[in-house]
Amino acid sequence: MDIAYIPSPSHGVVHLGPIPLRGYAFCIIIGVFVAVWLGNKRWIARGGRPGTVADIAVWAVPFGLVGGRLYHVITDYELYFSDGRDWVDAFKVWQGGLGIWGAIALGAVGAWIGCRRRGIPLPAWADALAPGIVFAQAIGRWGNWFNQELYGKATDVPWALHITSSTDGRVPGYYHPTFLYESLWCVGVGFLVIWADRRFRLGHGRAFALYVAAYCVGRGWIEYMRVDDAHHILGLRLNDWTAMVVFLLAVTYFVVSARLRPGREEVVEPDGDTPDGDAVALDKKADSEADSKADDEADETTDKKSDDKKLDGKKPDAKTDTESDEPAQSKESVEPAESEEPAESQEPEESVEAARGEAESAKKV
User: Fold this and answer.
1) Assuming Cys at both sites, which of 1, 26, 60, 276 could form a disulfide with 111, CB separation 3.0 to 4.6 Å?
2) 131-144 in b/e burial notation, b at 16+ Cβ within 10 A?
3) pTM exceeds 0.85, yes or no
């Protein structure tokens, strides 16, 4: 009985004349462009300058490609250095084989170099780029579809992946499309980081730590479903152990960073724009205009007070002249009064003597 399934491409490469166009490489390139584009928008919104993300990506991307390839070759060395294998194949990146753990680790080294040259903090740049990186992973996983690789256990679900190739030990059949599971999981992680960053204003590398932790959770159960060859430790695939260790490191960083450096960076790049976009920039412009207006009013008030003081400085002189004249006038008015008082005091004495004389003449009579 025929079942519904996801078909695999018959060829993972299309030749344009002598130039091979490989689906795996296209997925990686498109993912890088998406990461840089989205990272640039988020960087500008945080107050950074346009083009900074791309300038640092020039360092991060090559380092990341080398790191991803090194991790794959080291952990799957038997594919390149065992009997019957050609070690030159280790350099054929277009055939697939990039370990995300090595890509992020060595890519971070390249990003650190780029950030140091620009004088900006690496955690702030990583926070801006985190959703773009995980969206790039979602796109890059479709490169595994072109190469018919990284599928899961056999299944009859309607979305089963139909493998048709029999090279490199493949067995044609219907399998869980683990590449699709991881791609969808990465999309969900990307939107989770964007939401959490807006809701809680994550900073100082915490948005990047959230991306790493959330990705590791999905990678753990998806890795468990895969059936391709891998090294096992205590019954678990190597990438499962890696996911657990990296998850614990990411959660630890998130918690410690939140306690030591809460909030988000106020300035992410020297001479950058204001953070949080145009709205904050307009608010700052309005505040500066209000402050300028207040300063002008204060200057006018100060000038007015200065003029009033000058006028008040002239008034005391006139008042002093007036006060200096008043004592002279009062002195003149007092002096005559004092000279007239003795005359007024002599009149009662004369009347008293006249009255006494009349009384004595009356007694004689």
Assistant:
1) 60
2) bbbbbbbbbbbbbb
3) no
